[in-house]
Predict the 3D structure of the following.
Amino acid sequence: MKSTLLLALVLVSTGVSVAVAAPLGIYQHGTVVRMRMGDCVLMHRGFMTAFGPPQAAATEESCPEYTLVTDKVVFLIVGKSSNQLVPLAEIIDFRFQHRELAIRVDDARHESKFAIKEMTLRSQWELIQKHIEDQLNDSPHRPVDTSLALSSRE
Amino acid sequence: MLTHWHTRSVLLALFALAYVSAADDTNRFSGLPTYRSTVSEVRVTFFATDENNHPVATLTKSDFAVVDNELVVRNFRSFKHSDETALDVVALVDLSESVAPRFRVAMNDVLQLVAREQSIPNDNVAVLSFGGTSGGMSGGIRPAVLCASGCRASDSVSRLLAVKSGGTTPLFDALIFGADFISHHRRAGVRPVLILFSDGNDTISLHSPREALEAVVAGAALVYSVDMLTSEIQTSGSTFLRQVSDATGGRYFSLRFSQQDGAATVLNAVLEDLRASYVVAYDLPSHQAGFHALRLLPTHNLNLKFHSRNGYDYEPSGH
């Protein structure tokens, strides 16, 4: 419910920014700050996973997860296969399409679609990051539980 | 878990963290106050290949980003061509029964490698083996050094020609043996390369595949694996060979699809990769102790593939 509301908020703000930036294109901009290989469960959810044979369940393949930071919102997006990559340029262009994030690849018209796993307001995300940083500074030689962050290490 | 010498060798390698200390060690005993300033820097040696699997000669620092323990790094302290200009080649040859059909081909490749005087000085090539039989005796479980230097001498060549295939496959033990051999023969400015001829299928090692992978990653060598598998079906052995090569920043070749002879293909690739290598240095993004996973990824052209070691061990100073 909360994420639906947030998505609605983001879509509304997207609509506004698209209208404003229409002559320049339909893309929003963001920066990828983290990347990890996670499970592909998100990609395999659905009827066949729930009720189908065991082989329809999530495979052991890992999918790339990216933390994409924008002005207002921080997205955790997941690729659909192990080799679906986001170009890690300083600024990347993206837009919403059918509850997915379409990212412009290599300055071309080609887009690559990613599932949205999580969305957090940037202010909240920054608080979490600060908390992690403080933890690191308090105990520099102790491994930090980064599960508090958007992307946790398995 | 990596052993202490593995950790040290990683720290000493080009790839490792360089602790720049303002204090001179001689001050430690002179009674003078010591001011220490520690800067942690990560150095990564790498090369890139294009969509045709050819090395890319010219790269800029805006062509890639480093992902260090999940954190994306784009600001680099330095970026330059690698200083390494020569090769130290160790050929590690599987002589076991499972590769018997391609054993003679592999040995011919090894002899051609040894004979490439223009590319590798005589002292910079060694041949190790595992499995197999020699002079009617079983090669057994322990890997063997067939020649450590002077491999072009007639007695060394005779020894290489005398080996016979057969027996079991202690591949993982042999990789650890090879990594240890290389770390003991390491020289500055020379790139150590381990060319592994095998089908990737272990049958008898005391060590696990994970331990073998950790040993080669901790060692400084790039592993170029040559898959001796004759079947068209991809096996777990082939997957392991790919894993080892990828983890060290080397490459995987299959003799099945090679049009030229294996030795020429692999050695040319090793030399081209050496010439196309760069070193990038950046500030340690996270002081989290332990293994830092590492990956270089393109910023614009997704057809580029970057080859580097897949991680390093970070021990905070004072530990």
Remarks:
- Helices of chain B lie at 4-12, 100-115, 154-162, 171-184, 209-218, 236-248, 262-275.
- The radius of gyration of chain B is 20 Å.
